[in-house]
Specification:
Blueprint: H1 3-6, H2 16-27, H3 31-41, H4 44-47, H5 52-56, H6 62-76, H7 94-104, H8 109-117, H9 122-127, H10 130-135, H11 140-166, H12 175-182, H13 189-194, H14 197-202, H15 205-214, H16 219-229, H17 250-261, H18 265-275, H19 279-282, H20 285-288, H21 309-318, E1 329-334, H22 339-342, E2 353-358, H23 369-374, E3 379-382, H24 391-397, E4 404-408, H25 425-431, H26 433-444, H27 447-450, E5 454-460, H28 470-481, E6 487-491, H29 494-508, E7 516-517, H30 522-530, E8 541-544, E9 550-553, H31 555-560, E10 564-567, H32 582-597, H33 603-611, H34 622-635, E11 641-648, H35 654-664, E12 670-674, H36 681-693, E13 702-707, H37 718-728, E14 742-749, H38 753-758, E15 765-768, H39 774-790, H40 798-804, H41 809-819, H42 828-842, E16 848-849, H43 850-857, H44 865-872, E17 880-885, E18 891-896, H45 899-913, H46 917-926, H47 935-949, H48 965-974, H49 976-989, H50 995-1008, H51 1011-1024, H52 1028-1051, H53 1057-1083, H54 1107-1124, H55 1134-1144, H56 1159-1170, H57 1172-1176, H58 1178-1195, H59 1200-1221, H60 1226-1234, H61 1236-1253, H62 1259-1263, ...
Parallel strand pairs: 1-2, 1-5, 2-4, 3-4, 5-6, 6-7, 11-14, 11-15, 12-13, 13-14, 23-25
Antiparallel strand pairs: 8-9, 10-12, 16-18, 17-18, 19-20, 19-24, 21-22, 21-24, 22-23, 24-25
Helix pairs in contact: 2-3, 7-8, 11-12, 15-17, 26-28, 34-35, 36-37, 41-45, 42-45, 42-46, 43-44, 46-49, 48-49, 49-50, 50-51, 50-52, 51-52, 52-53, 52-54, 53-54, 53-56, 54-58, 54-59, 60-61, 61-63, 63-64, 64-65, 65-66, 66-67
């Protein structure tokens, strides 16, 4: 009875044990495989749902999967019992199937090998169908042939079985007949006779030696040995049969090794022992004695044997060096790997990989290479199609250079998608080859490949048998796009390499031997690469943690923090084993020499001084003040992120000072240098938060150095993002505030650091100048003496000497003069030096990449590039240095030692060699080389662009110069024609950048007054990039042209009516352009919109822009000025001026204006009629702009730099508006006295005009009077009282609302004023107004007053929430016009009752202005530190409340009133319900919570 018959009839009721018994006894799979499948299936019910694909997905090989799936199909049909025998084929092992298949398909040995790899035994083979062969990649021809052979076998077996039945014989089918048919050696004596050598092999000394060694292995080690042994292939490329190893003892295992590997038995044994880390047995003398004597495989016999492939591998990877320190990058191309190989591929995590091209679709699976790499490093998984586009954009979007790109070139099985399936060669060639080819072209376009600063490594982990293979096709692609010597091959075995070499030779006629490594095992390759370093990396990097402990910084965490260069506790330690060695002494000497010559300071410089106390590091005197400033901020608990600025002259040592402070504080802070400012600020903040939380139960304080960030005062910069990220993070509790602190130390270049320091909060900044104190000079003298003892000619360390000489101009000029004594502008080295002088003088941190220098000289360097380039620049090498730039994956550049030397060299070139900066600029723009594609070249292009367009701040304020320093210099030396030539040439070099034509347009309309040409270039810039900045430049051209026309006409004696027509047309075009610029700014998403990299435009780059509104005002008042010059509107004659006012107000038509009857006047009148709609809309448009701007300046937080300028401009124009429109004609005053009927109307007009000219006719204008004299406010209240009483019947609600607010302002300034209406009366008026407007009024004004009057007292529970909803709804409409900027409170909740409890911000300011400058006070309000002051806490009432679901509520008994936090970053993330307290301010969009504190 079969096993199945003993099992339950209902398969669905089978247990796990039943499934195992069925699989083992009936199906015939191994016990291990049966247990594995049964555990996954769990029960019979689930077993019936499985098919072949489900079984394969469990990691079971194809042979057993087919056998199990066919048996399941029979089981589902109710066919139980064993399959009938088939002439003994069902007993064949996978090895026997392999032996039988070889003669059956002699032309396709790969087919037999494939079936062997998939464990296809005889029992499995009998279950195969044509589709099963196809799934294994076996083509139809061999598959049909094999199936026919099997059919013949089944027929013979059936015939023999029938004959036996007729004889009544139940014995097995005779096997000799079927064996003869299938050409398989028979079992028994005959078979042994045909293999006489097997017995001899088993008894050889090799087998006995192996057996003796294996006896020393434990049970578990023997299993490991057998598992690894199965992958060892013999001379025919056959792996050791697993069926003969599984469960065998040491004797049988030794016999299998001897039988399968013959003379290589000892060599294979030693290799396997080393792979399982049993080096003690692998080193046994009896193994060493014979190791290496094994005969070569036949196909390997012709390979050239190389005595030292380990050294060859080092040379290939390091270009002849000793370590991977040189900044090289690697591209690795890899094919399918096996799980046993993965642990020997750890060297990939040591290599600085640019990308990996992976042809293994299982690489990201549980046992894949990609998954193993990601355990220790970060890799971004890509497809070839993602490499489409320009090199710079691909580098940026895929984060190349910073993190490894792992590219799946032929599918991914871990993603179930049609786009990620593995393709056969034909399909791959049609669908994917083009993308891979493009990827290869782009990678080979990178400088590290083009200039031999890295290499492409083809890592063959499995054989490549044909040239019709995607992996081999990719090899050909690399040979097309790069030099052959840049492509290295590493093979896992000599046999694999022999096939590869033959394929390459046949296809490309190329001998790969000099560039290949094939005799080293993967284990040896792994060890060799690991020994290559690089230097500069301590074995375990440590970071400070809580309670004076330390944690390890893993390499994977470093990969994640791409924007940060982290300083560790043990930085530089244990890098050199022997710091007394000559190697270390030479390294130290070179590091010090490079720094004191002018190289960037490194952590090594501080480490050397720490190791040798006798040789100190010179500190500027401000060191102690910066240290104290940082520690003082760290003790401050208020802000999660504080910004400290160091304003400094370029080249005076500020960065060195900041890094020295960081070095000495690395035990107290987790320190890092911000190295990539181009990343989104939110992403940088997340990386800093990651550093803060890394491997620590508590947050750790962070000190971040941001070197030369352009906009240190930008309120929307990195500091805000860091503060929000830290305060929003879970675990950043109030009790842990000291540890949740990020201090940003910001080095800011400045031409007047001392004055800039004085304008800031002195507690949060310091300054450093290019002037030494006597103490500093003394320290530099001592240091010079030290250097003279350890270095040759330290007087040639020019950067050090410049500081030692206290930046003496004479000394610097002498250095420049001596350097340029042999200068020749016609030579390549002379041209390159002039380019460097220009760049280094006008652009900070600029230079020319060494690779570009090679191309410039037109030669391929055969030696170290640094030496070669400096040799070509020998005349100037004393002032040149090569340093490393970390951008773009790191490259080396050539520059001048110090920017003062560069400036002095430009003066010498001009004075002695008649070479002006314009000549050098045009020469540089002439070279196509500098502007071709390439990431490193893009850095140079960007430097050239910045040199032309970047403007500096003025020395005496925050405003910017009109043009870049270079353009100013050319303008002064040679005038506009040359400037135009430079810009035109530059524009041809930057065809896709709007900044250059925009800058040229600005130059033309400001300096040249060439408005048609300026408009042409402005329109060109707008066509390249249509944004608020380019559109504003067009508008500025119109405005300047109009202004110029008006100024010119003032000087002319005669008047031409056509000028009026031209001017009005210019004004109309200009106003349209300004309105368009403002609309685009209003619609622009400030957080995500792309900004131009230049700063040349008139539009500000930060925050919400109001320049469009201001531009409309300016254009309108120029038009008013033009009209005021007309003979019938002349401003100097009051009557005519009143006519102009009446005409613009729409009171009288132009025909009703008294005027002379002449031809010119008639022409003027006709022109005005033609443009009358435009002109009549000007006054209401101007009034609307004033109202919008008044709301902007009153209700929102402004941009300090630009708003100050705009506010002055608006104020000046409002004075003109008042003069033109806010007057009552004297004639009307006289009429009032003579005509009592008109008296009341004229009184109303006077009151209205008074309010308008006092900017008090709007709600925001009334609110601004909180800091005005009380007498002025009384007049305002009196005027509103008259208007309010008079227009009461007309239901003028806004007048009444303004009247109530005017009374509130008056009470706060003069509580006992006789004009004050009284609290109860005002309250009643407000209730009437609220009844009239309801809850849907289009302005928030009445609801703002409701908050002031009806906000509950501490003991009250009045429900204010209805008005709260109304104010938020209506203010949303208002603030949408102001780009939803943050609002400010002008009134705060104090300790009194009724109106006594209101405290104005103006009154709070007055208590501080006697103590500090207004700028310092503004900074305290901005960062919230103002609420720590006693004057604040004494006057304001702290309100109790809660935070629920991240929202803040003020609690009054059972009433919860929602309020907005003034600083959202002050609210912790995590939706924790907490008790809080805060100060309450009233803003136009509702109540704001200031200084939120958690009660616990």
């Amino acid at each position: 009875m079969s096993v199945v018959g003993e099992l339950p009839a209902d398969v669905g009721r089978w247990t796990l044990a039943d499934i195992v018994r069925w699989l083992k006894c009936e199906v015939g799979v191994s016990r291990g495989l049966a247990s594995k499948l049964a555990k996954e299936v769990e029960c019979g019910q689930f077993l019936l749902t499985f098919d072949k694909l489900d079984i394969l997905e469990l990691g079971i090989k194809h042979g057993p999967a087919v056998l199990i799936s066919r048996s399941l199909e029979r089981l589902k049909k109710g066919q139980r019992g064993a399959t009938p025998p088939c002439g003994g084929v069902e007993t064949w092992s996978p090895q026997q199937v392999f032996q039988w298949l070889l003669p059956q398909v002699p032309s396709n040995s790969q087919c037999a090998q494939r079936l062997l790899d998939e464990d296809v035994s005889g029992r499995c083979l009998l279950c195969f169908g044509k589709k099963d062969f196809a799934d294994l990649g076996v083509r139809s021809g061999p598959a049909v042939h094999i199936l026919k052979k099997l059919s013949q076998l089944k027929a013979v077996a059936a015939q023999s079985a029938g004959a036996a039945t007729d004889r009544g014989d139940d014995r097995s089918v005779p096997q000799k007949e079927t064996q003869k048919l299938l050409d398989v050696p028979p079992e028994g004596k005959d078979r042994m006779d045909r293999r006489p050598k097997r017995k001899q092999i088993e008894e050889t000394p090799h087998v006995l030696t192996v057996q003796k060694i294996l006896e020393d292995l434990g049970k578990e080690d023997l299993k490991k040995f057998q598992f690894v042994l199965r992958e060892q292939r013999n001379g025919q490329g056959e792996p050791t049969p697993w069926g003969k190893l599984e469960g065998r003892d040491t004797v049988d295992t030794a016999k299998v090794i001897g039988e399968h590997h013959a003379d290589r038995a000892l060599q294979v044994t030693g290799e396997v022992l080393r792979q399982i880390n049993r080096h003690d047995l692998a080193g046994r003398p009896d193994l060493d004695r014979i190791r290496g004597q094994a005969a070569c495989r036949p196909e390997e016999a012709q390979l050239k044997r190389e005595p030292n492939q380990g050294e060859k591998l080092k040379n290939l990877l390091t270009a002849g060096g000793n370590s991977l320190d040189g900044g090289n990058r690697f591209v690795v191309v890899v094919n399918k790997s096996s799980p046993e190989q993965i642990r020997h591929l750890r060297f990939l995590s040591k290599l600085p990989l640019f990308c990996v091209l992976d042809f293994d679709p299982d690489s990201n699976g549980p046992l894949g290479l990609c998954r193993a790499y990601k355990e220790t490093r970060v890799a971004n998984l890509h497809s070839p199609s993602q490499y489409r586009g320009r090199l710079d954009s691909v580098v940026s979007s895929l984060n190349l250079y910073d993190q490894t790109s792992w590219v799946f070139c032929n599918g991914r099985r871990d993603i179930p998608s049609d786009a990620d399936v593995e393709l056969d060669y034909r399909t791959w060639f049609r669908r994917s080859c083009k993308d891979v080819e493009q990827l290869v072209a782009l990678v080979c376009g990178c400088d590290f490949v083009r200039y031999g600063r890295g290499c492409v490594v083809f890592l063959l982990l499995s054989p490549v048998d044909t040239d019709k293979d995607p992996f081999f096709e990719t090899y050909g692609s690399f040979l097309k796009h790069t030099e052959e010597q840049n492509v290295v091959t590493i093979c896992e075995s000599a046999r694999t390499y022999a096939k590869w070499k033959r394929l390459v030779a046949d296809k490309f006629d190329f001998d790969v031997d000099p560039l290949s490594v094939y005799e080293l095992s993967l284990s040896q390759v792994n060890g060799t690469v690991a020994a290559l370093g690089p230097h500069g990396h301590s074995p375990d990097k440590l970071l400070p943690s809580s309670d004076s402990s330390a944690v390890v910084l893993r390499r994977k965490d470093e990969d994640l923090m791409t924007a940060l260069d982290v300083l560790c506790l043990n930085q530089c330690q244990n890098v050199y084993e022997d710091e007394k060695s000559p190697e270390f002494a030479d390294f130290r000497r070179r590091q010090e020499e490079e720094f004191y010559r002018g190289g960037k300071v490194t952590w090594w410089n501080f480490y050397f001084c720490d190791k040798d106390n006798k040789k100190t590091f010179v500190k500027r005197d401000k060191y102690s003040k910066v240290m104290a400033m940082i520690r003082s901020q760290q003790r401050e608990k208020r802000n999660a992120c504080a910004q400290l600025n160091i304003y400094h002259h370029p080249g005076c040592g500020a960065t060195t000072l900041a890094m020295h402070v960081m070095w000495d504080l690395r035990g107290e802070f987790r320190c890092a240098v911000l190295r990539d400012t181009k990343l989104p600020k939110e992403e940088i903040a997340d990386q800093i938060l990651h550093l803060m939380k890394l491997e620590s139960g508590r947050h750790c304080p962070v000190l971040l150095l941001a070197d030369d960030v352009k906009e240190p005062d930008d309120p929307h910069d990195l500091v805000s993002c860091i503060r929000k990220a830290v305060e929003d993070s879970e675990g950043a509790g109030a009790e842990d505030a000291l540890h949740c602190k990020v201090t940003v130390l910001n080095c800011v270049r400045s031409h007047s650091p001392k004055s800039q320091y004085r304008r800031q909060n002195c507690m949060q900044c310091q300054y450093l100048t290019a002037s030494l104190t006597p103490h500093e000079q003394s320290e530099f003298e001592k240091k010079l003496q030290e250097l003279q003892e350890s270095h040759e000619k330290p007087e040639n360390f020019y950067t050090f000497m410049i500081m030692k000489m206290n930046f003496d101009h004479k000394y610097i000029e002498d250095v420049a003069h001596n350097t340029l004594s042999g200068f020749d502008a016609g030579t390549d080295d002379g041209k390159l030096f002039s380019f460097l002088a220009l760049l280094n003088n006008y652009v900070a941190e600029s230079g020319v990449a060494l690779s570009l220098c090679e191309d410039f000289f037109g030669v391929k360097m055969t030696r170290e590039p640094v030496d070669c380039v400096l040799d070509r620049m020998k005349l100037y090498s004393n002032v040149l240095i090569v340093d490393r730039v970390e951008e773009c994956g790191g490259y080396r550049r050539l520059r001048i030692l110090h920017h003062t030397i560069a400036a002095a060299c430009l003066k010498v070139l001009e004075r002695s060699h008649f070479l002006k900066v314009s000549d050098i600029t045009l020469h540089m723009l002439h070279y196509d080389l500098f502007f071709s594609d390439g990431v490193v070249k893009d850095r140079l292009v960007l430097s050239i662009e910045r040199m032309l367009i970047c403007r500096q701040r003025k020395k005496d304020g925050d405003e910017r110069e009109l043009f870049s320093p270079l353009i100013d210099k050319i303008h002064q030396q040679q005038g506009g024609r040359t400037v135009r030539d430079v810009f035109v040439k530059a524009s041809s070099r930057f065809p896709q950048r709007a900044s250059v034509p925009q800058a040229l347009a600005r130059y033309l309309y400001i300096n040249e007054r060439d408005f048609p040409e300026a408009l042409r270039w402005a329109e060109k810039a707008k066509n390249i990039a249509r944004n608020p900045y380019t559109v504003d430049t067009v508008a500025q051209v119109y405005k300047s042209s109009l202004r110029c026309n008006v100024d010119r006409e003032k000087q002319e004696l005669s008047r031409n009516p056509d000028n009026l027509d031209a001017n009005i047309r210019l004004a109309a075009n200009g106003i349209r352009a300004f309105q368009l610029a403002q609309e685009q700014s209003d619609n622009e998403d400030n957080s995500q919109a792309e900004r131009p990299e230049d700063e040349s435009g008139d539009f500000p780059r930060n925050g919400y822009n109001i320049n469009g509104h201001v531009g409309v005002l300016e254009m309108s008042f120029i038009v008013f000025e033009v009209l005021a010059k007309l003979p019938f509107f002349h401003e100097r004659e009051p009557v005519k001026k009143n006519l102009l006012q009446s005409f613009l107000s729409g009171s009288i038509p132009i025909d009703g204006v008294q005027k002379d009857d002449d031809e010119a006047t008639a022409r003027y009148v006709q022109i005005i009629k033609d443009h009358e709609p435009f002109l009549l809309h000007l006054k209401p448009k101007v009034k609307s702009k004033f109202d919008i701007l008044n709301c902007y300046f009153t209700y929102t937080k402004g941009n300090f730099e630009f708003d100050a300028v705009n506010c002055r401009t608006v104020c000046d124009h409002f004075k003109k508006y008042v003069d033109l429109f806010c007057t009552v004609p004297e004639e009307l005053r006289k009429v009032k006295e003579d005509n009592p009927k008109l008296k009341s109307k004229l009184i109303l007009e006077e009151r209205r005009v008074y309010l308008e000219k006092r900017l008090a006719d709007t709600f925001s204008g009334v609110l601004q009077h909180l800091d005005r004299p009380a007498q002025e406010v009384e007049e305002m209240v009196e005027s509103y009282a008259v208007l309010q009483q008079t227009v009461k019947q007309k239901r003028n609600i806004q007048v009444r609302i303004n009247y109530i607010l005017a009374n509130v302002v008056l009470y706060l300034l003069r509580p006992k004023s006789k004009l004050f209406e009284g609290y109860q009366q005002l309250r009643n008026l407000l209730l009437e107004a609220l009844q009239a407007v309801g809850l849907t009024y289009n302005l928030p004004d009445p609801y703002y007053l409701a908050l002031l009057f009806f906000w509950p007292a501490p003991s009250e529970e009045g429900d204010i929430r209805t008005y709260l909803k109304a104010i938020r709804s209506s203010s949303r409409k208002l603030l949408s016009k102001l780009s939803n900027r943050s609002t400010v409170a002008h009134l705060y909740l104090g300790r009194g009752t009724e109106l006594k409890r209101l405290v104005s911000k103006a009154s709070l300011d007055r208590s501080f202005l006697c103590k500090m400058p207004r700028d310092t006070l503004a900074q305290l309000w901005w960062n919230g530190d103002i609420f720590k002051e006693k004057d604040i806490s004494d006057r304001l009432l702290r309100v109790g409340g809660t935070i629920e679901q991240g929202e803040v509520f003020a609690n009054y008994g059972g009433l919860k009133i929602p309020v907005h936090p003034a600083r959202r970053s002050g609210i912790r993330r995590g939706c924790s319900t907490e008790k809080v307290s805060f100060y309450l301010g009233f803003a136009i969009n509702g109540p704001l919570a200031y200084d939120v504190r958690y009660e616990n």
